[in-house]
Specification:
Layout: H1 3-6, H2 9-12, E1 14-19, E2 22-30, H3 32-41, H4 47-52, H5 54-67, H6 72-80, E3 87-92, H7 100-115, E4 117-118, E5 129-134, E6 150-153, E7 165-174, E8 181-185, H8 192-196, E9 205-207, E10 219-221, E11 226-227, E12 233-234, H9 247-261, E13 267-269, E14 276-280, E15 284-288, E16 298-307
Length: 309
């Protein structure tokens, strides 16, 4: 029986259904009554306290789970660890009271700590990062560049800690057109077998990062760095931060990037303000479509990356 079939909206405070673009991607909607109850349960904890005291992040997560009749955490873990799904869009009904940005930090913290533990984000110096995409940008990566497509990739290629999941929440936006999230499940990549069975698939690649990431040193791992419990490949790939050391590596990575960008099974998913997209980082690749130019273009995002506990 599917999760959607066993969820009782009247008692759990949330609903689950498949996204219209893909049966893999699940949409979880928190009811307005549960949102209000969560705010009441966490009103004593401000964002600074949750930043300074890591154990409070689990208390915040438990508060959200309790207002959902103790069922939300099991639901999220069931989705994120199911290879056939592995991703969900989390939305809420109604409007939070008070500072909406602070509420979104707490809500995203609850979600990330129901499924695992958030890693330290060197770019922001906290367990989460907030950053803005504007009409003009001079940064050293594609993350903030609005008018180009950010190619499909996995996060965590250039760090030593595991990055099992990625959470991206849209905090606010103005004058936006375009910029949908792009998603591709590894098993839906039609040329997966060709690249997975290539002799280069298990060869260590050198990975680094630009200065803005504030991560020194290099790491080494193959693109297909492990298999899951059923023998299916998990990936760690990003075209910007791979540093091939010979022709064979360079051409393999180049062809892989071209194949991924031309994959017709890539999903284009709009994410409403206040919603978050959460995915298993090793069986989903993600990116972002380009925006239409506008002088007042502005989008603020919150990111959390972490490992399963």
């Amino acid at each position: 029986m599917s999760l959607a079939a066993i969820v009782d909206e009247s008692s759990t405070g949330f609903t689950v259904q498949s996204h219209p673009t893909s049966k893999r991607l699940q949409v979880i909607t928190l009811q307005a009554s549960a949102l209000q109850a969560f705010q009441m349960a966490t009103q004593a904890w401000d964002v600074q306290a949750v930043e300074y005291k890591p154990f409070l992040r689990f208390a915040v997560a438990d508060a959200l789970n309790q207002v959902c009749d103790g069922q939300l955490g099991e639901c999220l873990i069931g989705i994120i660890k199911d290879r056939e799904q592995g991703a969900f869009l989390f939305e809420y009904q109604g409007a939070p009271s008070g500072d909406v940005a602070d509420f979104n930090v707490l809500l995203s913290t609850a979600i990330s700590h129901l499924i695992g533990v958030a890693n330290f984000d060197s770019m922001h110096g906290k367990y989460y990062a907030r950053f803005t995409v504007r009409n003009v940008d001079n940064s050293d990566s594609y993350l903030r560049q609005a008018h180009r497509r950010m190619e499909l990739h996995n996060d965590g290629t250039y760090v030593n800690e595991r990055t099992d999941f990625v959470l991206m929440m849209k905090m606010k936006e103005k004058n936006m057109e375009g910029g949908n999230s792009l998603m591709l499940h590894v098993d839906d990549w039609q040329e997966l077998d060709a690249f997975y069975n290539d002799p280069m698939a298990k060869q260590d690649i050198q990975w680094g990062s630009p200065p803005s990431k504030q991560v020194a040193g290099k790491v080494f791992h193959p693109v297909f760095f492990e298999e899951n419990e059923n023998g299916k490949p998990n990936m760690l790939f990003i075209d910007q931060f791979a540093e091939p050391q010979n022709m064979q590596q360079g051409l393999y990575l180049h062809k892989m990037g071209e194949s991924l960008e031309n994959e017709e099974n890539c999903l284009s998913v709009p994410v409403p303000v206040g919603a978050m997209l959460v995915m298993h980082n090793h069986c989903w690749l993600h990116g972002r479509d380009k925006f239409i130019a506008h002088d007042g273009l502005e989008r603020e995002l919150l990111r959390q990356r972490g490992h399963f506990s």
